[in-house]
Design goal:
The protein has helices at 8-14, 36-48, 73-84, 94-98, 103-113, 125-129, 137-143, 155-159, 162-166; strands at residues 23-29, 53-58, 89-92, 118-124, 146-149, 188-191. The chain has 214 residues and is α/β, with parallel strands linked by helices. The protein contains 9 helices and 6 strands; from the N terminus they run H-E-H-E-H-E-H-H-E-H-H-E-H-H-E. It has one domain: HUPs (Rossmann fold), CATH 3.40.50. This is Probable nicotinate-nucleotide adenylyltransferase. Keywords: ATP-binding, NAD, Nucleotide-binding, Nucleotidyltransferase, Pyridine nucleotide biosynthesis, Transferase. Belongs to the NadD family.
Length: 214
Amino acid sequence: MNNNFVAPRFFAQAIPPYTEGMRIGLLGGSFNPPHQAHRAISQFALKRLQLDRVWWLVTPGNPLKENGNLHELGARMQAARDVANDSRIEVSCLESVIRTRYTIDTINTLRRRLSGLRFVWIMGADNLAQFHRWQHWRRIADQVPMAVIDRPPQSFRALASPAAQALARYRLPETKAALLADQPAPAWVFLTGLKLNLSSTGLRNPDGSWKGTK
């Protein structure tokens, strides 16, 4: 479905509250399940990047992952709200509403319809390591500044990845992280210092159920 055909009222319902000029971090993922690392990454980014909000974009499914054990979107949304527990972190089902499968389409839609906001794409170092596999990854980098959160032991693999090497000249020093949201893309920063290494994969049982739940 072409994003242009999404009724404005449905788009508006999927967008968290905002005011013009806000600096918004975007953290996309399946959140299957959401966990404290998602929250820690978001709070770390809020502080280091001087953001006003972080929006969790709960995806209907990841094109690069097996989605057979993916929990229902509503369950993941509610679990994400429970884990976030921070007024600065908002949970959105935008990608389900605009029917996008790829990050580039989501970013294009947000930039077109919310041009008064300053967006930063947030990802973990594990995602930078495979960023070159994302659909139109170079266009993503051209559209929005990116913040990569170090997730040891992924550091070396991430910084040696094809995407990191291709974008090396656009990397800002970590000391200028607070300026990232105001930079024209391409621009990115690699943030170190967060010592929390959880993953959704590690919190799922073999049958796809979430550990700690029935």
